[in-house]
Automatic annotation (TrEMBL):
Keyword annotations from UniProtKB, A to Z: Membrane, Transmembrane, Transmembrane helix
Sequence intervals crossing the membrane: 117-135, 141-161, 173-193, 213-235, 242-267, 279-296
Stated name of the protein: Hydrophobic protein (TIGR00271 family)
Lineage top rank: taxon: Bacteria
Pfam families per UniProt: DUF389 (PF04087)
Native species: Actinophytocola xinjiangensis
Amino acid sequence: MLHLRVISPPEQTDKVLEQLTTHPGATHLVLNRGAAIAPAGDLIEALVAREAADDLLGSLCRLDIDHTGGITLEPVDTALSDAADRAEEDAPGDAADAVVWEELLTRTGEESRLNGAYLAFLSIACLLSAVGVIINSPVTIVGAMVLGPEFGPLAALAVGLVRARWDLVRRALVALAVGFPVAMAITALGTLIGNAAGLFDTSVLTGRHDVDFVYQVGPWSLIVAVLAGAAGMLAMTSAKSAALVGVFISVTTVPAAGYASVAAILGEWARFVESTRQLGINLLGIVAAAAIVLLLRRATWRSQDVGRPLPNG
């Protein structure tokens, strides 16, 4: 279940109540007239079945409530109520398969922002992957995979392409186009300092190592990226976020970026090219698979994208 909270101008309140009272997926309706101060209006609350949320949000946005008032939605972990149980049973569809598109747009828009935290996490993940390459530690590489924040912009890019939200596409492309070069430059600088300090030399890349899978490009690189992208988007659209951890440790985006940085500093240009190709294949495979998943779920769309601009930042 989801907790829906609406601030409605008084002249629109009856229309909002009509939408909520007539929809089988809404219950626990509460009205507090004049309770809202900024923006001023009536406060309306309800419990909504997840599979009904997209339809109700579309109806409320068509009433212009998102501009004249406000709409918030948050998950409810526990709801002990026969009325809530009936709402979930009566709402069309299944909660696990329901996509709340406005929630997805907001989430991916937030996670694709180019900010200090994103650059810090991406840079640390690349540095950690470089350490894993240098000390030949697959465990450290896995840690870098989990730490990397790159799936947010990749998911945002897929969502933006499928729903023609070019503001989201631009934000995601900027985060990727700026984030990876900055993180790789910082990793290259760290590698240069470590090499100059005598901590390692070119022997760390010669011969066979347990972490060679990071730069070795083959059919499985694309297969894994496609499967991970599909699983990641399914996790995001079905509210099964725990599955995202499996996505993070499946693809070699960040490790490939870290490996490329190390290879460039040590003059191993063949491995630099291969690891860069690995990075590109993973990025394209994830975005393509995520977009395909969204296209396959097009039948679940019950409302048009209201076209709200993304928050600044």
